[in-house]
Amino acid sequence: MPDTAEFSSLPLPAALLDNLASLEFTTMTPVQAAALPVVLEGRDVIARGRTGSGKTAAFGLGVLTRLRLEWFAPQALVLCPTRELADQVAAELRRLGRSLPNLKVLELCGGTSIGRQIHSLTHGAHVLVGTPGRVEALLRKGSLSPDALSMLVLDEADRMLDMGFEEVLEAIMSWLPVPRQTLLFSATWPEDVQALAQAGLVNPAMVQAGDDETPPAIEEHFHLVERGGLLDGVTCLLSHYRPAQCLVFCETKRETQETAEALRAAGWDTVALHGDLEQRERDEALLLFSQHSARIMVATDVAARGLDIPDLALVISMRIARDLDVHVHRIGRTGRAGQAGRAVTLFTSKEGHQLQALASYLDRELMDSPLPAPGHEGPSPAPMVTLAIDGGKKQKLRPGDIVGALTRDGGLAADDLGRISVQPTSSYVAVARDKADQALNQLKNGRLKGRQFRARRLRIR
Questions:
Q1: Which has the closest alpha carbon to 444: 416, 392, 397, 405?
Q2: Domains along the chain with CATH numbers
Q3: Cα–Cα dist 323/251, whole Å
Q4: This model's pTM is above 0.70
């Protein structure tokens, strides 16, 4: 099928096609054009494509097409390496399937009460999206019945294996019924992924997409800095480029936390993301960054895996990644959807050999250059402030209720509001910084759904 094929050429249910049209999804990406027809045939599929190639829709539409919505039992399982990616996949499945009546997508990830998830499973769901450890635990406890599961998706299989989930994945696959349809998506094709595919898939169709696509417009730079000068290098780059948002990669959790604290002390609105944080702290950091209430996120590679931040102008690596394939994933965070991006890597003389190894790995010459001159202006605050409301879906709140309260009753303009996230027991709204006090006063003293809710600023910490 040609890369310019349209979704309307596929045998998708009318409800899904109508919803795709409403989302202005018309032309498929190369990985979608290559994978979806085979997925819809019911075959096992191995799809290789770089991050940001549209793979969620490539497997998601296949999953949604096969569901028997009148049968309220888990029929498809999507496994992801991290909770953050699982959150994104679940949200995208709900968006793609919003025209399907009573569709229920349930997330099963660590960091959330397993008791609450067991309770949710008793009420049924059509699609499960989760991390390997939590899904395996629920299967082992007998709390998750696999009997109706006819479809398994392994999303970012290479990352799951890198994180040590090989035995867990094998255990999960042994629990699931056969025959089933299994879809494996991976950006790379190392031996361990090949072994997993051989063990878990039957006569799979091989799909390779992305190599002949126009590469992202990423401007890449390498700067040699003195030992102990990595943090100064980061602040210099932030001062020079003044990005709307920037992702800074560190090698260790300790370095991540220390760098975030130092940037915050220097006046940059910065959040940290690493494995030593409590889940609530991780969730708040992601929320602040996604709602443009923080300009800088400092993260480890594992914590940032799967993040899809639109319009991310700058990615900084404080060191050359020890795993050279990780370098490719880092710079792939910018230059998404055909937009221009910039990736900058700092390194010391001790890591000079790593630059040569990376050049050999990428099969191109890499040259270091002096750091650019720092800008004359100091840090500027993030443009938005996130307000938290102690009420959510369980209190029947919807985004429209919050918009109405702030624009109709609170006197704010629609342009003063950013992203709104309504969760089970809490809601979050991004508000222009100069209107934050006005909005908070309205939320505290006004009414939503005829009642008052507590509200507060979600602060960077």
A1: 405
A2: 7-208 (3.40.50.300), 218-362 (3.40.50.300), 384-457 (3.30.70.330)
A3: 11
A4: no
